[in-house]
Amino acid sequence: MNPVPARPILRRRLLALAAVLPFAAAGVRAQAPTRVLVEVWKDPNCGCCKDWITYLEANGFASRVHDKGNAAMRARLGMPQALGSCHTALVGGYAIEGHVPAREIRRLLQERPDAIGLTVPGMPVGSPGMDGPVYGNRRDPHDVLLVRRDGSTRVYASYFKT
After folding, report:
1. How far apart are CA 96 and CA 132, in angstroms?
2. CATH tag, 37-159
3. Strand (E) positions, 6-106?
């Protein structure tokens, strides 16, 4: 009795494995968590904008950054100028203006209210990107506002208020 040569068996097994691997890899990729994309328009020299983006990425978001066009994008998204800040973002169809915490962005995406989006007007110290030792660890009270389609607002969350 002649034994089957090892090379043809090994070759067949390798070919079978090669045929299955792309499908197995695709299954693994499909199960990996997806990071929600936040597209940001900001001034190229703004350090707090960069810090806010770094904060979002550390909190599970992906980012695409444009170093110009903040005011134009704010207007295009319908965010009132009076509620503006140093950067404008778009996530899940909502405008995010200023130093909005990741927790409130996730809440917005879960609740899906009929709204333009969220804003933290101005640049309050203690908000994400405006925090840490460089600011003396100061934490000024501020609100995250939900901006309705008619431009009116309501408090969505409050921070550091007693």
Report:
1. 22
2. 3.40.30
3. 37-42, 62-66, 87-91, 94-98
